[in-house]
Fold this sequence. Notes:
Elements: H1 2-22, E1 27-29, H2 32-38, H3 40-77, H4 83-136, E2 141-143, H5 156-166
Helix pairs in contact: 2-3, 2-5, 3-4, 4-5
Amino acid sequence: MLKKALVAFMSIGLVVSAASAEAEMRIGFVNGQRVINESPQAIKAKKKIEKEFEKRDQDLQKLAKQLQGLQEGLEKNATTMAESERHNKEREFNDLNRDFQRKQREFREDLNLRQNEEMASIYENVNKVIKKVAETEKYDLIVQEAVYFSPKIDITDKVIKALGDASK
């Protein structure tokens, strides 16, 4: 019994020693979402993707207006149209709607793919910059996800500034 108590006290002593050694650790926090929203590389990539997909987006908007016009025409004139004319207009509307749905799905898939490609390269660059800041300023640990962090360990602004300097 005495041995167990002695082992327990020694274990507590080791934990306290380890805790005091950890207190000397230098820890930093980076808000990854803010870095992605505010970094010059991410802003440039967003503009590039918007420009790349602008024409397709406009084409989809035109197609949506055309669909809306067809639907309104059908609803407005359905009672006065001949059965065959109404049937043809409904078929035209359904074909156009199917085409619109397909183009919209392809647009979203292509847009997501391009965004993921750009983000992968940005994340790689961000991680390099975070590592460089950590090594330069002698941080022992940098975290990007946390339930809570003290503002005094937040180095997000330093990382964004370093990313700005790296993009020049």
